[in-house]
Here is the input.
Amino acid sequence: MLIIGAKGFAKEVLEVFHQLGKTTNLAFYDDVNENIGEFIFDIFPILKKETEVVEFFKTYGNEFTIGVGNPILRYNLSKKFEALNGNYVGAISPIALISSYDVTIGKGSNVLMNSVFSNSVVIGKGCLVYYNAIITHDCEIGDFVEISPNVTLLGRCKIGSFTQIGASSTVLPDVIIGENVIVGAGSVVTKNIPSNVVIIGSPARIVKELTPLNIAIS
Here is the structure.
């Protein structure tokens, strides 16, 4: 297994693999940060070149996951390593509480410990669900969405792709949030929100418009 990234969030993803008992032949990749060293925790090697990745995939299998939080970076990195013949996979903590019926979690999504999924929940590709997030019944989450710690998504709400939900925010039932939206920490979203905006507050209000994304997810 190769974890892309070798800083803070990558270490949190490592913990999920530790909980799953899947740390044999696990390595990290980081070609950005200088002076990062050769190993994490003096155990797990850090690869720094694409040629090393190709060799790693040939030797230990081609599964990789993303240890970076930002949705756009996650998307771009998934494409980069899929182009190197990698198989993009996710990791779900065994300490997460996933309900028994009609739950779909997309390829490459990472679910950290103590998050709660109710029945009839759909999570798209490449998502990140942090500690203590609660996703209640019939919610639909798009691709490459970041759901921060202690977020609560209430019944039947819909979250568009590439949206970031800040820590301790709440989205009320039936609310639809568009794509590429940043929801500030602690916000309470009480009404539908269009794509490509930043919202904050309780109730949440639009404070900034964002440049629309030009991304086609496949």
